[in-house]
Amino acid sequence: MAWVNAIIQGVLTGGLYALFACGLSLMFGVMKVVNLAHGDLAVVAGYIAVGVIAVTHIPVLWSFIIVVPIMAVAGYVLQRTLIQGALDRSVLTTLMVTFGLSVVIENALLQFFTANSRGLGVGNAFITSSFSLGSQIQIAYLLVLIFAVAVVVLVGLQYFLSRSKYGRLIRAVADDKEAAQLSGVDYRHVFGVAAAIAFGTVALGGIAYGMYSQLAPTTGTDTILLFAFAAVVIGGLGSLWGTLLGGVVLGVAQQIGAQINISDEVLAGFIVFLAVLVIRPEGLTGRRARS
Amino acid sequence: MSLVTEATVRSEEKFRVTRSRRNVAWTGAGALIVVVVLALFPYIVYSGTTTIMVQAFIVLTMASMWNLLAGYAGLVSVGQQGFVGLGAYFVLILALHGASPFAALPVAAIGCGAAAFPLWWLVSRLRTGYFAIATWVMAATIMLIIERFSSIGGGTGLPLPGLAGFSATLLSAYTYWIGLAVTVVALTATYLLLRGRLGLVLTAVRDDEVAARSSGARVGLARMLVFIVAGIGCGAAGGLLAISQLQVQPSAVFSVQWTAEMAFAAIIGGLGTIEGPIVGTAVYMVLQQTLASYNAWYLIILGLVAMFVALFARRGLWGLVDEHLHVRLFPVGYWLHEPGAGRRRQRRRADGQPG
Amino acid sequence: MTSAGNGTQAGASKPLLEVRGLTVHHGQLRALDRVSLRVFPGEVYAIIGANGAGKSTLLRTIAGLHKPTEGVILLDGQDLTRVRPERRATRGIAMVPEGRRLFESLTVEENLQVGMTYARKGPWTIERVYELFGWMRERRAQRTAQLSGGEQQSVAIGRALVANPRVLLLDELSLGLAPVVVRRIYGMLPQILATGLTVLLVEQDVSQALRVASHLQCLLEGHTTLEGRPTDVTAEQVEAAYFGLGAPGPEVLGPEVPGLGPGPGGPGGYGGAGSPPVSRRGLGGIAPPEETGAPLWLG
Question: What residues in C contact A182, CB-CB < 8 Å?
Fold first, then answer.
């Protein structure tokens, strides 16, 4: 039964990982940018939420209403300025610039907020409690809520990409940005929109993580970035459902690892990631990449 | 297209291609003098200074490795801290079995080179962005695996044995000398590699990978070689780290901060030149020493400067010097002598400039 | 197929699209050297030339994908030279790029919808494109990656049409397509022109170009070697201009094009494709080859 509990925990955690991962996947799919500061942005969002809550006394669960739009706008601006500038130079430059950004963000957080981790105390007794199925299965309401939010976001994103005008433009620009220009599309603007979405979703993930666990300056890279990347690789690029699947597989692998040996939780996830990399690099749902 | 000018060949004379020989002799002599002077440091300066120098040696070695990877082979690795940690732990393990850490260091470096083979196999097929994060995950995985073994200290680490018999001054002198040796070997090896066939292949790949492959360049092999050399170099730096800190802790030796420091130093100094990492390390040390009391500030500033350089001054500080003074201390390029144009030389960019 | 020419005669009105002294470099290579042209409303202007002559570069520069080193591009008198490519589309230039360049993960209809996103007002709609290409309506939900070459070409043309441009740029329509398909596509031109469009096209298949063009220019290594109406040039003049052989310079219409002498010495090293088929029937008033000693071209 403990194993069933572990698997359920893993599946639900996978929702959180998918929330982290979809922005990374979007930015890579659309503009071929691997944003190494992706995880740190989630942490920044969490810290902003702490500040916003302190100032506006908004209930913690609703803090995302303010924080997500802020991060989305920041994403658009950062994309149009910094990342586009780096993209215009070369792919290597974007890696170096986003890595630099990651280090700067982390150390700035360290400098101004110390290394202590902090959480977003949810405060609502109902949410922080859990319910039981049988004697050995305990499921936190918060985790179920986060999973539900993740699914809603992914469904919404999928719908947006396949049905809306901007979704179409994003897909077109991802296919051939020069041809899109010929049809009057300013691809830099579309990149900005994609980045805004990526920043917004990862901000949501960061706030969720802050509620569920604790955020520290290094959480962005230690945890979020590497897990998000692992989820994308395991699930496969090009499909949001793949990202959810990847997150779930990662979560389950981690929980199973924890069952075997409590300190092997993270390692188990990475080993699955490396295995997928070796055996099926295009991921569980990915198509064989065309070169 | 890169070695031939626009104008059609008007005469029967051939193009001549020569290596830079003129200033290598001067640079070689100069470098030798510098090394000798540096070797005398423990006799001249306080051990506080030599300790700082050891830090500089560590960063310089790592920076030249990162420069090899990113500036020449086009591989942006954010996981070199994995080799740093491995190098430190190899030294620790050998020392735990009775070896002298100083003797263990070269062995540890070779060990890291051997470890680089399977790691390369794991990541070599990945494209640039994926490659970067995958190396990061690999480094994290290596750390997690090592932490499982309590015999080498588990999550908290161990002090480094085998150095108790030395007096403080002597220890610091030996550490300094081995640090100097590591750095000299690293720089010399980099220079020789890039002057040789490897450098030519890497430059050709950077200009046009498809053309390079079809001309017979073994691109994958060249990149793998660079990855392994970088593994050896970072491993040696890690061993040096262990010796200088007298202890090996996983969170310290596997910290991504090492990659940050080596990357920033290499970028600021100038990717794609051998002199670059030297300049970059100097900048790093100045910043670190002046801002030491302000904790994380030096990394923030270093990071911002590196980002600025990557965007606007792509060839780094040394590149700016090179552009205006046309100086190469460690030239690895070629001179193309056009026929019929008298003794006037036309320099073609066949000497490893990034993008 | 008669050569199209149902627009205003040259000289009777202002040019719709004008290019003056355009020089374009790819790095150190000079791809275009002081090329000029004037396209009048309703015309079909064809650019021909061998591989590497600079034809596609010319079109791409007009569309805004390359920055010229020198020269001016004018649309209806307005200077477009520094305008970004996506803004040129809204001003009235639409290009069907070489190799189709469809959005492969999108369906046929979605491709057209992207084309419509920043469209100008005009007669072309997605419905009208479906009418032009009869097969398209049924297949509109299919991903374009699954279409044949000819079908993709049609979708690419449709994508450009729905933007309601004033000038339609067609880059190497015939590339990779069977001759029968090419003919059918070019057969659509009259219907396209009837809605008030002007066409500037690049074509490697010289006979096809001569069949549809009201005006043509031949490029060789970035220079203009021939310019005029198909009815006014002979087959061997075209051949000479195409290959840069030492034929006597033809009469040139348009004073801004420099006088053409014999081309650069020696034929060596021209692009791959082999002799361009030129149909004798497509040209008016040429001397029979036996008189001039020129090789017989097979149409």
Answer: 63, 65, 85, 89, 94-95, 97, 101, 160
